[in-house]
Amino acid sequence: MPLTVRFMRRQDIAQVTEIDHQAFPTEWPPTNFQRELENNLAYYIVVYETQNNNPQSNAQSIHRELQPGIFDRVRRIFLRNQVTKEEPSEEVSILGYAGMWIMADEAHITSIAAHQGHRHQGIGAALLICLIELASAKHTRIMTLEARVSNQIAQNLYYKFGFDKLGVRKAYYLDNKEDAVIMSTEYIGSPSFKEKFTQVKQAYDKKIGPFTRVLSVS
Ligand SMILES: CC(C)(COP(=O)(O)OP(=O)(O)OC[C@H]1O[C@@H](n2cnc3c(N)ncnc32)[C@H](O)[C@@H]1OP(=O)(O)O)[C@@H](O)C(=O)NCCC(=O)NCCS
Questions:
Q1: From ligand 1's centre to the CA of 31, what distance in Å?
Q2: For residue 108, what are the β-bridge partners?
Q3: Among all residues, which ones are annotated catalytic?
Q4: Ligand 1 centroid to residue 125 C-alpha, Å
Q5: What secondary structure letter does DSSP report for 66?
Q6: What is the pTM of this model?
Q7: Residue 78 confidence class, pLDDT cut points 50, 70, 90
């Protein structure tokens, strides 16, 4: 399934909030995405399955609807051009989201979640790849995060991408006083981090296919 990752928009908030509630049902207060979108330090991204906007296939479906004849042949060409110029549909089903705050030279991952029905299909990895690429484009030195000590799946994901355990924050989570593992990368511009990142990225390119990023940063 071809994926696209882009920055979160206001129109995504309802879907993202649902994924957030599923992923973090006991989190309080829940993330205020409206406020996060207005926060200059925050970078939130979403991933969705790329719509089939292939002009060839759209043109084919139009062909089937049209009657033959010179008038229709001209109309067909006109319609085909219209389809080619059409913007991709804004109605997308979001499969996951992630966010981070960049402060000085540190990027702190605030959340990452895949839709419950689409876990272990590479969604989390695609999101983390994009966060790391964004942090690198913003000349960040390190990336950090907290994860519940019991959240082995998330820790596996981060270990895979070169994060390491730095320590523990005692009773960090308000709902059950669970400890948090603090994880961090080394300097993300270092040759060793870059080499590992390239290798992991290549493995995921094979697994989930190359995906589109609409994520330019200034
Ligand atoms: C953590 C989370 C984002 C991972 O996303 P995902 O799309 O399911 O994960 P991916 O398919 O991209 O897998 C990437 C890696 O994560 C780990 N992983 C994912 N699912 C796993 C599972 N069921 N068991 C063990 N490890 C798992 C593996 O290391 C995996 O690498 P692999 O593909 O080589 O096996 C997802 O499980 C989720 O949304 N969890 C709830 C929210 C959450 O806990 N977020 C993290 C907060 S710190």
A1: 20
A2: 101, 144
A3: 146, 158
A4: 8
A5: S
A6: 0.86
A7: very low
Nearest CA to ligand 1 atom 18: 153
Picking from 217, 199, 214, 8, the residue whose alpha carbon sits closest to that of residue 111 is 8
CA 46 to chain centre: 4
CA of 84 to the centre of ligand 1 (A): 37
Question: Does residue 156 line the site of ligand 1, with CB under 6 A?
Answer: yes
Q: Looking at ligand 1, which atom is closest to the CA of residue 147? A: 48
| Dist CA 142 CA 47 (whole Å) | 23
Q: Where are the alpha helices (DSSP H) in 5-163?
A: 13-23, 33-38, 55-65, 70-85, 123-137, 152-160
Of all protein residues, whose CA lies closest to atom 35 belonging to ligand 1? 120
Find where tokens 């702190």 sit. 108
**Cross-strand pairs, 46:** 6, 97
Q: Which residues pair with 148 in a beta bridge?
A: 180
**Among the listed residues 121, 109, 125, the one whose alpha carbon sits nearest the alpha carbon of residue 31:** 109
| CB-ligand 1 contact for 121 (6 Å cutoff) | yes
Residues 121-176 pLDDT 10s? 999 999 999 999 999 999 999 999 999 999 999 999 999 999 999 999 999 999 99
Closest CA to 22 of 97, 123, 120: 97
State the Cα–Cα distance between residues 209 and 3, nearest whole angstrom.
8
Task: Say what the pLDDT of residue 82 is.
Answer: 33
Separation of alpha carbons 29 and 108, rounded Å:
19
Two tokens, residue 43: 């970078």
